[in-house]
Write a structure and sequence with these properties.
The chain is of the alpha+beta class. The protein folds into two domains: 6-177 and 346-369, Gcn5-related N-acetyltransferase (GNAT) (Aminopeptidase, 3-Layer(aba) Sandwich); 179-345, Aminopeptidase, CATH 3.40.630. It has 14 helices and 15 strands. Strands 1, 2, 3, 4, 5, 6, 7 and 15 form an eight-stranded mixed beta sheet that branches. Strands 9-10-11-12-13-8-14 form a seven-stranded mixed beta sheet, sandwiched between helices. A hairpin with a 2-residue loop joins strand 11 (276-286) and strand 12 (289-297). The longest helix is centred in the middle third of the chain and has 21 residues, at 121-141.
């Protein structure tokens, strides 16, 4: 098998080869349309590059990289106000503020690359590592020294290939799990889901639905998203700012840009009380998989109306009704997501610091990068 690969690094989606999407058939998050969204509405502390892998003239692999400048961040997350958080912020500013990610920091799951079956996967991963070194040189020329290089989010099954591709010199870490909800083939409507719940969780479902009485849920089109853009951003920003940890904040035009580019593949649901927008959630159709995306809500109403839990139930119902096979619920609010039926999938990655002394203690640095969340897994089914 001829596995001589060359690399092309693109700074704009307009430079991508015409047949780029041929390799992104199964993943909307590697398609040109999505990469254009990143270009037009990425967080202001993020810059993206797209990597093409070629065997002679033929494109045989595609990958995404994101560079984060954490010095531009207004906050790393304000929920935990303590000494540890202050120490974390000092460490970040001085030693970890320039992060190169091979993958997508805005999503959970393997959205880093796709390689054709015609090439050797281990050789492809070795070449991906070479691409990361080329990107570091590219940023150095621009005056940014990359502190940390990280490859994320991979399943346990993918780990042996990384080890064989020479990643032993990098710190292997495990992140918060990705919460996945499998939809059995025989479920055709929401009632099929409700019927499988144990009494305790069926009661939780009924209580949540009763609490939400008076709230009107509405699928919003592009014009409505633009009309409510200021409120949408306030609701999103409130939730994002109060997270345990943040490495970026979306710009105000992000959801509008998503709707313009992905159209019916991107669904935006607004939740209204007395005609006032009090919350929203977003979901993305990715083949047979439904990916949950960002949301926002008014915290005072959220608690009283169990709004977040109702959003999760709405996503489950929609995905069942429309014949999806799986929902990717990502890696926040783990316990409440498990209470509706999502199961944790352990995800792995690799990390290396450019300073060899700090790299010896990279496991300590990682504790600040991905603070551990203690949670209890639930099983809502009979």
């Amino acid at each position: 098998m001829d596995t001589h690969l060359t690399i092309e690094i693109y700074s704009s989606s307009t430079q991508l080869p015409n047949n780029w999407n041929d390799l992104a058939v199964d993943n909307v998050f590697l398609r040109k349309e999505y990469l254009e969204i990143l270009e037009k509405s990425a967080p202001n502390n993020m810059s993206c590059h797209f990597i093409g892998f070629f065997n002679e003239e033929k494109i045989v692999g595609i990958a995404l990289s994101q560079f984060l400048d954490l010095n531009k961040l207004e906050s790393f997350g304000e929920r935990d106000k303590c000494i540890k958080t202050s120490v974390r912020n000092i460490i970040f500013k001085n030693f970890c503020s320039h992060v190169l990610i091979i993958g997508n920091n805005m999503l959970s799951g393997q959205n880093a690359y796709y390689f054709s079956d015609s090439i050797d996967k281990i050789h492809a991963l070795k070449t991906l590592k070479i691409a990361s070194e080329q990107l570091k040189s590219l940023f150095l020329k621009k005056g940014f020294k990359v502190h940390i290089t990280t490859f994320k989010d991979f399943s346990k099954e993918e780990m042996p290939n990384f080890q064989l591709a020479g990643f032993q010199d990098s710190y292997q870490f495990s992140t918060q799990p990705n919460m996945l909800f499998d939809i059995p083939d025989h479920w055709k409507k929401e009632q099929d889901y409700i019927d499988t719940l144990s009494k305790k969780y069926r009661d939780q479902y009924k209580r949540a639905r009763k609490k939400a009485e008076g709230i009107v849920k509405r699928k919003m089109n592009l014009e409505e998203i633009i009309k409510h853009e200021d409120t949408i951003y306030e609701l999103y920003h409130h939730v994002a700012k109060n997270a345990h940890f943040n490495t970026f904040f979306l710009p105000k035009n992000h959801f509008r840009t998503f709707k313009e580019s992905l159209k019916d593949k991107f669904l935006f649901y607004g939740y209204f009380l007395d005609e006032k927008l009090i919350g929203f959630n977003t979901i993305i159709k990715n083949g047979e998989v439904m990916d949950t995306y960002f949301l926002g809500y008014d915290d005072t109403i959220q608690r009283e109306k169990m709004l977040y839990l109702n959003m999760l139930y709405d996503i489950v119902a929609y995905s069942i009704n429309k014949g999806f096979k799986e929902i990717v619920f990502a890696r926040t609010a783990l316990e409440i997501k498990s209470s509706v039926g999502a199961k944790p999938q352990e995800m792995f990655g690799f990390m290396k610091h450019s300073n060899s002394i700090i790299d010896l203690a990279i496991d300590k640095v990682f504790c600040y990068l991905d603070p551990e969340v203690v949670w209890q897994e639930r099983n809502p089914f009979k």
